[in-house]
Amino acid sequence: MIETRAATAADDGALAKLDERTWSPETSPAPAPPPGTPFFDDGTRPDDVMVAEHDGVVAGYVRLDEGFGIAAHRHVLVIGGLAVDPDRRRLGIGRLLVDAAIAEARRRGARKLSLRVLGHNTGARRLYASCGFAVEGVLQDEFLLGGEYVDDLLMACALA
Fold first, then answer.
1. What CATH number does domain 2-158 carry, 1.10.10.10, 1.10.287.130, 3.40.50.150, 3.40.630.30?
2. Once rounded to an integer, what is the mean pLDDT over residues 51-69?
């Protein structure tokens, strides 16, 4: 059984371990946090994270962020992170988390939900497209990862 719920401070250790298991140049141009780094900090609060549990075990999360943090941009929220346990992929957890993020963004009054995804992450791109996200822009050769230049795609979903 898979359920989504709001994160709590008690999820910190499980989410940090999930990040350790899923962080790679395939999913993020930023370096992985060092082992033992807390998941929650000044930039990531439990209120901004939804967790998926599979058979009672934390199996994934999605994080919602503010965009630019200015009044003119308050109608937009951003998926700032999505991770699914590699041992629990292909169970629909990613889709449930994206759907939960869309529902939460709507609940918060957002009119648009956006995200960035690396061009070579075709699995994530397909997932987002199947959930109603469309490519709004491409930053060509934005990152140099493993000796290869990689595009950064800007995707969004209209909520209104």
1. 3.40.630.30
2. 94
